[in-house]
Amino acid sequence: MTTVLSKIWLPNIVMTILAFLLFTSASIAQENRQKWVVLNPEGVVKINAMKVNPHPTTLRGKTVVLRWNGKHNGNHFLDRVGELLVERVGDVKVIKSWEVAPETVDPITGSEERSREFAKAIEKFKPDLVIGAQSD
């Protein structure tokens, strides 16, 4: 008699427990459902028009400051630019800012004020043109 009851009742009990677990876990999962908010990653950039300085028609007899911000290999690029200027223009004075004003070497200036300080430091060399390289 015990085996007959266990054959009838045991599967029913197991099925009832499984059904209970299945439905309760589904309702718990719905309660904990994540909510996502999709944002547009494009920033709105306001660009103010600015007056650009006139460029010299020739670099002959001019002073060119090469400005490196400290990022990897930017100085090598500017070294080559300086070599080419001397080679192709001839009468041009090339100043490497990282050699004469090492305080201007910084990959992240952090503020407009600090950038202006760098510009003032470079301005002391009376350049006709400044060429910068950021490199990475």
Q: What would you note in describing this structure?
A:
- This protein has 136 residues and is of the alpha/beta class.
- It has four helices and three strands.
- A three-stranded parallel sheet has the order 2-1-3.
- The longest helix has 30 residues, at 2-31.
- The protein starts with a helix and ends with a strand.
The CATH topology of the domain at 62-133 is given as Rossmann fold
Count of DSSP-assigned helices:
4
CA-CA gap between termini: 83 Å
Return the average pLDDT rounded to an integer. Answer: 83
Question: Strands, helices and their partners?
Answer:
Elements: H1 2-31, E1 62-68, H2 74-89, E2 92-96, H3 97-100, H4 112-123, E3 129-133
Parallel strand pairs: 1-2, 1-3
In short:
The chain has 136 residues and is an alpha/beta fold. It has helices spanning 2-31, 74-89, 97-100, 112-123; strands at residues 62-68, 92-96, 129-133.
Q: What tags apply to this protein structure?
A:
136 residues, alpha/beta, Rossmann fold, 46% helix
